[in-house]
Amino acid sequence: MTLINENYLHLEESYLFSTINKKVEKYQKENPEANIISMGIGDVTRPLPQAVIKAFKKAVEEMGRKETFKGYGPEQGYSFLREAIIENDYKPRGVELNLEEVFISDGAKCDTANIQEIFSTENKIAITDPVYPVYVESNVMAGRGGPLDKKGRYKNITYLPCTAENNFQPPTPEEKVDLIYLCYPNNPTGTSLTKDQLKEWVDYAMDNKSIILFDGAYEAYIQEERIPHSIYEIEGAREVAIEFRSFSKTAGFTGTRCAYTIVPEELEAEDSQGKTHQVNKLWKRRQTTKFNGVSYPVQVAAAATYTEKGRKEIKESIKYYMENARIIRESLEDTSLEYYGGVNAPYIWVKTPNMSSWQFFDKLLEEAQVVVTPGTGFGPSGEGYFRLTAFNTRKNTKEAMKRIKKIEF
Ligand code: PLP
User: Fold this and answer.
1) How many angstroms is it from 83 CA to the middle of ligand 1?
2) Which of 16, 66, 78, 310 would staple 51 via disulfide (CB 3.0–4.6 Å)?
3) What is the pLDDT of residues 311-340, one digit of tens each?
4) In order of start, what are the domains of the chain with their CATH numbers?
5) Would you say 125 and 264 are in contact if contact means Cβ atoms under 8 Å apart?
């Protein structure tokens, strides 16, 4: 009989969202009058900017005319979009990139999951905990995880706990690790790193010949000047880092799908004989073999986010979400709950008062009819925390926080 990839058997079943849904459904059935508000959603709720829709429609029309129809596009993405990314997202921050270093894709999720494939399974992986679960799980699938222990940790992965005790800034590992996943601004803790803090990681990677996989999916939410938008703002990072970005949370593309990954030409890794290779070439080889590019209309739509109108509209949406974040933080000030993040990210990470993440989830559902995401869904160090998001409407955000403020903790 055909054999399976047994690494999949090590994967922990992800019950998080199905358990949340089941609990919510049961509560709603028993309390049909209850107006339940979800403060757990990790998806955007505002529509695509009008500038994007206009460009999108025009590009779709082009596909319907013989003269302008387009078949397969370049696997790495159309140069008009790659140029716009370099000019708008990097040049103004003093980062020089060339076209060959920018790879357009249909999501940061697939890129952050697929990137490990070009590196040896012998590599030691370090991952901040709690974090976006894709990094851990894609490495477990590839065989870098090993068995799961009782604490919910894969034996062969180095976890870097991020908790209130270390101010969500994990120290660099004492041992040598080869690939390090960093996500800043962070999902789920909503915290960010300053230039000096990020520099420590770049220095570690340079000293240990490691590679940093930097997920900047929430870069557009950064409000404070002291927070770097790209890891390449740190000297030396071109030699040690790959950066992932996405139009999903920046411009409402979660259902439209467009993202990009930067692989600098200086970035090198070794083979087992000690010979060095350009990582950019490997990723290009991987992408051109396994990926046929993002559709032309979607890339045109993404490029429209850089027009004057597009930028203005995006700014408005982000301002709207960040005002929700401010309302959440201000409301939490009136409670005894300790909270973190929400200043440079749409996520607010809250400590549960002497109860587990799930106990707190139940309490909020029953006493306030508010749904949150239990921290354990993001890794073992998420126990004792829960995540609130700023992606709801203003009205719901205000109402949910009004209800939370009334609860006795
Ligand atoms: N990276 C992080 C940290 C995320 O939280 C998410 C989505 O929630 C993604 C990547 C996914 O991005 P995309 O929609 O581009 O696949």
Assistant:
1) 23
2) 310
3) 999 999 999 999 999 999 999 999 999 999
4) 6-47+311-406 (3.90.1150.10), 53-308 (3.40.640.10)
5) no
